[in-house]
Each structure stands twice: as structure tokens, then as C-alpha cells.
Specification:
The complex is a heterodimer of chains A (600) and B (79). Chain A contains 26 helices and no strands. The longest helix of chain A has 35 residues. Chain A is elongated and about 110 Å long. The N and C termini of chain A lie far apart (78 Å). Chain B is rod-shaped. Chain B starts with a helix and ends with a helix. By secondary structure, chain B is an all-alpha fold. Chain B has one domain. The chains are: A mainly alpha (600), B mainly alpha (79). At the A-B interface, α23, α25 and α26 of A face α1, α2 and α3 of B.
Chain lengths: 600, 79
């Protein structure tokens, strides 16, 4: 009900405001243009994601100070803590950044966002900012019509800045004119009631505008026009900080549990900071005066002093919270527990990961590996082996020859519950993310979809193989038993090799990709050897023609499964950001070349 | 310089950057080095092994690595 009536109410209030006061219209237009600029700026910076930003973000996970610094610098440059939050949530969801590092980035972003207040207070209100806005808009729009995504991005950033400046200009003009007709300062409320009231107004304004930055600019422009008192301005700034958390919480609703935990950290940080700022407001005022004095800010320069206050209380918040960062992370993990992980549930695919091409690919790759793991288990049982036997056995062929235990399970049921669900989730995720992907990423997206499809095919082949493999591994005819054990060995050996190459850190991925070709050639040789052997044992009546036919049919399943598994592993080990692996992908041999190399 | 020329120049620069993200000769050289090392390792192992089964596998692998090495050299030339 409230949701339904809120928007019309806001629109009606705004329309009434425009009707009675042209100055209010100018201020509101200024805020709108400012927010429009923020949207442009975010879009512009998104064009540059998929490269530098992600690499930087991934390198800031090892130390808390690095995460903090990343938060400060990225938010200062992009002037949007919400974009930094979205990127961080996206990376945590994709499992590329830890929660502790994510919290560090969010803390840093809170300091970074204070640079906006400095820019506006020191520059935006002192010079004729609209003079810079116009050329920026023109250059920005011209560039945004270009073909290259980087030029488009640069254009959007430039136009975004232009709109921000223009918005500030209108807000400034509006407040200047407004003060002649109406004195908002007469509504000032002193003491703690005023502090709480204006903090609540600041929070509400931020929730409505979805940007603490816009609220702060509004406060600064109103303060510059003496439309609010300095004390009330401080309270509004505290409120804006708390309000921005609500934006983050709304944003996290579509995120996975990691995103919600990060929003929780943001909420706790801003509430603690807000409470500390309100409780020690007098001490903060004294500290602001002292800092302002020491850096040469005039005693009556309230806009600059507000910027000092904003930085100071966020800095105090960070200093208070950083030592508790690990405890905070533990608390959030405990209070927002992850659902028990069922192997069949996608682990890395979330709406938050769709935001950026890089996280789409990374989470997708992890999910396809997850599908591979599920399929591995099913395939292992399909050939009557345990996963640990395949991975740990010292002499795999001997283990297979000796192990005659039949694994009793419903393969169809497990296929439906462990593999098909994951595969469907992957296909669904790809179709949803395709629209957001630049063309240079689509090739890898296609490769990953193909890899997922091949894994499913492999499980189906093993299902076909299972019947005869189970029957003949128990046969008293040692020749057919040996041949089927060789088929079981081939599948087990390939699975094992893929795990080895995937897991060993000292193996270069480019070499691992190429080593799959060697395995393909070995399979090819095995195929030739099998043909010769079958002809021999059939001629000597050691196996029946029915057995030979089954063996040949089943070998085709094994052959295709082996190739699919190796193709899948090659696709999963490839990364467009690893240029040597990219070169290796070009050197990978095709079917004819493999056949040629396998022939003695 | 006209603005359109400036934009064209910038696009060319960006295009060069984007193309630079494709395979670089240096990366192919590095790959060739890795493959050559591997080939030498296989040759050394082959010289030490008498087991016919192992020899057959090593020979197959050696042929694959040699083919990959040739292919990378060819790609380097074309590049």
C-alpha cells in the first residue's frame, strides 16, 4: 500500500512545489541533472570494467590496507560509492574477493566519497562551474557517439561530469534565488532534537535520491546560500551517511548471501559512525575547528568546515571499525548463514555477477567446473569406481582390475538432480547475461556453454556404457573383462589427469591446455590398438561376436566421452586475460593433426 | 587538426590497444620456449626408457609436442 502511494505522493509534492516556487523548481532540476550525471558517470566507468578495474580489485584482497586504499581511490575517481559497492558485491558473489576484503573496500569507499564534498566545497561553489560543464557535455556527447567502447565510455564520463557540474550550478542558483523569498534557516532547530531531526531528514533525502553524494551537494549549496545552519548541516551529513546504507540494502536484495553480508557490514559501519558522530558532536565540532584552523580554512567558511567534518567522522569510523574487521566478518557469516550447499545448486551464479562481463565469465567458469565436479562423481560411480579411487590410487589400472564392486544407484535420478539442474542454471545464466556482454567476451561465453553441454553429453555416454561395463567386469571371460576394464581405465585416467592439471599450481595453464592434446593422441593410439586386439581375440574365439559388437559400440562412447572431457578441460583452462593461454589455444591441434601425431 | 581527425586518431589508438590484446609475438615466443623445454624433457626420458609400452606413449607425446611447436612457429611467421 505504502509502496503504491509513495511515488504519486512524491510526484504531487514536487508538482505543487514547482507550482508555488520557480526557485524550488530550479533546485529540484539541479538535483535531477546531478543524478542524471551520476548515471552517466557510472555507465562510463562500466565501459572500462572487464580489465584494469577487475585486475586491481583482485590484487587488493590480500591485505586490509590495500582493500581500504582501493575503496578510497576508486570512489574518489568514480565519485560513486554505489558503483564501487556493486562491483565489490559482484566480485564477492563470484568468489573472487573475500568478505573481509570486501568490507575493507566498503570502509575505504566511505572515505573516498568524502572527496566529493571537498571538490564541491573548494571548487564547485567558488567558480562559475557551468562554464566547465558546457564544453564537457559537448565533448562527452560527441565521444559517446563513437564506435569504440572506450571512447564511448570516456564520452559518458565526460558528459557525466558535465551534468554533475550543471546540476551543482542549478542548485546553487536556485538556493541563491530562494533565500530572497523564503528563509529556510528560520526553520533551524537547535540542540539534540535538531540533530536527530536533521539527521533523519538527511537519511530520508538520501533514500529518495539514492545518492548520499547528491544529498551532500545539496547540503553544501544550501549552506553556502545560508539556507541552513552549520549545526543542522552537520546533522544532515550524518543522516546522509546512514541513508546511503538503505540504498545499499535495497541493492543487496537481489544479491546472494555474500552481497547481503556486505550490505550488513555497510549498515553496521554507518550506524556505528552515525552514533559516534552524534554522541560526540561537540568534540567533533572542536576537532573540525582545530583542523580547519591548522589548514587555513576561515572560521566562517562553513562549507569547507562541513567537508572537514564529513571526512573526519568517516575517518574516525574507519579507525574504530578496521581493528574489528575480522570479528565483523565472523559475526556476519554467523548471523547470515549460507544455506547448506547441495551439490546440485549453482554456487556462483547470482544476479549480482551479471553486472560486469569479467564476473560473468569468472563465475560461469567456476560454475562449469562445479558441474564438472558433479559429473565426475556420477561418471565415477557409473563405471563402478569411487572418486577417491580415481584420484588417489597409486596404480589405477591395478585398482580397476581388482575392484569388482558394483555401485547400486539410479543414474537417471542422479543425473536429473545433480547434473541437469546445474546445466539448466548455467544455460539460463548465459542467456540472461548475453545482453550485457561486449562482443569480445562472447566467444568465451560460447566456449563455456559448449563445455557445459559436453559435460552433460559425457554423463549420458557413461549411462549407456554402464550396463555392459557392469555386466562384463563381473564376467568369467577374462578377455572381455580386461577389455572393459581398459575402457573404465581410460575414463578414470582422463578424469584424473584433468584434475591433476587443474590443481597443480606449478603447471602453466598454457602447457596444461596443450597437454590435453597429448592425451587425445594417446586415446587415438588406444583406438587403433583396440581394433587390432578385437580382431585377434575374435578370430581366436576368445570372445563372442556379440561381445565384440558391444565392445566396439561402447568404445565409441568412451572415445567420445574422453574427447569431450579433454575439450571441456581445454575450454575451462583457457582465459582471455591470460595471453599465453590464449596463444596456446591457437596452437591446440585439430582432429586431423592429432590423428597424424598419434600414428607411429 | 580537425576534431574529426582527432577522433579518428584516438579510435586508431584504441583499435591498436584492442588489437594488442590479441596474441602478441612475445607470448608465442614464450610458448615456443615452454614447448621446446618439454620436447627436450621427453627426448631425455625416451633415451632413458627401454619399456616398449612407455616408449610408445612417450613417442606419441613427443610427436604431439613437435607438431605444436611447428604450429606455433608457423603462427609466429604469419603474425
Amino acid at each position: 500500500m505504502l509502496k503504491k502511494t509513495l511515488l504519486p505522493t512524491i510526484l504531487l509534492i514536487l508538482a505543487y512545489g514547482f507550482w508555488v516556487s520557480p526557485d524550488f523548481k530550479e533546485i529540484a532540476a539541479g538535483v535531477s541533472i546531478f543524478l542524471f550525471g551520476m548515471l552517466f558517470l557510472e555507465d562510463g566507468f562500466k565501459a572500462f570494467t572487464g580489465g584494469v578495474l577487475e585486475k586491481l580489485l583482485q590484487k587488493t584482497t590480500d591485505k586490509t590496507w590495500k582493500s581500504l586504499l582501493f575503496g578510497v581511490v576508486s570512489t574518489s575517481i568514480m565519485q560513486s560509492s554505489s558503483l564501487v559497492s556493486v562491483i565489490t558485491i559482484s566480485f564477492i558473489s563470484a568468489g573472487l574477493v573475500t568478505l573481509v576484503a570486501g568490507i575493507g573496500i566498503i570502509f575505504g569507499a566511505n572515505i573516498g566519497t568524502t572527496t566529493g564534498a571537498w571538490l564541491v566545497a573548494a571548487f564547485g561553489l567558488k567558480v562559475k562551474i557551468s562554464a566547465y560543464a558546457m564544453p564537457m557535455l559537448v565533448f562527452g556527447i560527441v565521444l559517446s557517439f563513437q564506435k569504440s567502447k572506450y571512447l564511448k565510455g570516456a564520452g559518458a564520463v565526460l558528459a557525466g561530469l558535465g551534468f554533475l557540474f550543471l546540476g551543482i550550478h542549478y542548485m546553487k542558483e536556485g538556493f541563491e534565488a530562494f533565500k530572497d523569498s523564503f528563509d529556510l534557516a528560520s526553520l533551524a532547530v537547535g540542540g539534540y532534537p535538531g540533530l536527530f531531526l536533521f539527521a533523519a531528514i538527511g537519511a530520508a533525502a538520501t533514500v529518495v535520491m539514492q545518492s548520499s553524494h547528491a544529498t551532500l551537494v545539496l547540503i553544501l549549496t544550501a549552506l553556502a546560500a545560508s539556507q541552513i545552519t552549520y549545526e543542522n548541516g552537520l546533522a544532515l551529513a550524518i543522516g546522509a551517511n546512514v541513508g546511503t546504507t538503505i540504498t545499499a540494502i535495497i541493492g543487496s536484495l537481489s544479491a546472494n548471501i555474500q552481497g547481503r553480508r556486505l550490505a550488513g557490514a555497510h549498515l553496521i559501519f554507518n550506524i556505528v559512525t552515525g552514533v559516534v558522530a552524534i554522541a560526540f558532536i561537540n568534540q567533533f565540532v572542536v576537532a573540525v575547528d582545530a583542523v580547519s584552523n591548522s589548514v587555513g580554512i576561515a572560521a566562517d567558511n562553513y562549507t569547507m568546515k562541513l567537508a572537514v567534518f564529513h571526512t573526519l567522522f568517516n575517518l574516525v569510523g574507519v579507525l574504530l571499525m578496521v581493528p574489528l574487521i575480522h570479528k565483523l566478518s565472523d559475526f556476519l557469516i554467523k548471523s547470515l548463514p549460507e544455506k547448506a550447499k547441495d551439490l546440485a545448486e549453482p554456487l556462483y551464479l547470482s544476479e549480482a555477477a551479471i553486472e560486469f562481463p569479467e564476473t560473468v565469465l569468472k563465475s560461469l567458469k567456476k560454475e562449469v567446473w562445479h558441474l564438472f565436479d558433479s559429473a565426475f562423481e556420477l561418471m565415477a560411480h557409473g563405471i563402478n569406481l569411487h572418486r577417491t579411487e580415481i584420484l588417489k590410487s597409486e596404480d589405477l589400472q591395478k585398482t580397476i582390475d581388482n575392484d569388482r564392486e558394483v555401485h547400486d544407484f539410479d543414474m537417471d535420478e542422479l543425473y536429473e538432480s545433480k547434473v541437469k539442474i546445474l546445466y539448466s542454471a548455467i544455460v539460463d545464466f548465459i542467456s540472461n547475461s548475453q545482453a550485457h556482454m561486449p562482443s569480445d567476451f562472447s566467444e568465451e561465453l560460447f566456449r563455456l556453454r559448449k563445455a557445459a553441454g559436453e559435460i552433460v553429453e559425457c554423463v549420458k555416454h557413461i549411462k549407456h556404457l554402464r550396463k555392459n561395463a557392469t555386466k562384463y567386469m563381473l564376467s568369467d571371460n577374462e578377455h572381455i573383462r580386461d577389455e572393459y576394464n581398459k575402457l573404465r581405465y581410460q575414463i578414470a585416467m582422463i578424469l584424473r589427469e584433468i584434475y591433476r592439471l587443474r590443481g597443480e599450481e606449478d603447471i602453466d595453464h598454457s602447457i596444461a591446455i596443450l597437454e590435453m592434446d597429448e592425451l587425445k593422441a594417446e586415446i587415438q593410439s588406444a583406438h587403433t590398438d583396440l581394433d587390432v586386439r578385437i580382431t585377434g581375440i575374435l578370430r581366436d574365439d576368445r570372445i563372442t561376436p556379440t561381445m565384440a559388437t558391444s565392445l566396439l559400440n561402447d568404445f565409441n562412447y568412451v572415445d567420445e566421452t574422453s574427447r569431450h572431457l579433454l575439450d571441456t578441460a581445454q575450454a575451462l583452462m583457457f582465459s582471455h586475460s591470460d595471453l599465453i593461454a590464449e596463444a596456446a589455444q591457437e596452437v591446440v591441434l585439430d582432429e586431423d593433426e592429432i590423428e597424424k601425431a598419434s600414428a607411429a | 587538426m580537425k576534431f574529426s581527425e582527432l577522433v579518428e586518431k584516438a579510435e586508431k589508438l584504441v583499435g591498436k590497444y584492442e588489437k594488442g590484446r590479441r596474441i602478441k609475438p612475445r607470448k608465442l615466443d614464450k610458448l615456443q620456449q615452454l614447448l621446446s623445454d618439454k620436447k627436450s624433457r621427453y627426448q631425455a626420458k625416451l633415451a632413458e626408457t627401454d619399456d616398449p609400452g612407455k616408449r610408445q606413449k612417450l613417442e606419441t607425446r613427443l610427436r604431439v609436442v613437435t607438431a605444436q611447436l611447428e604450429k606455433s612457429k608457423h603462427l609466429r611467421k604469419v603474425d
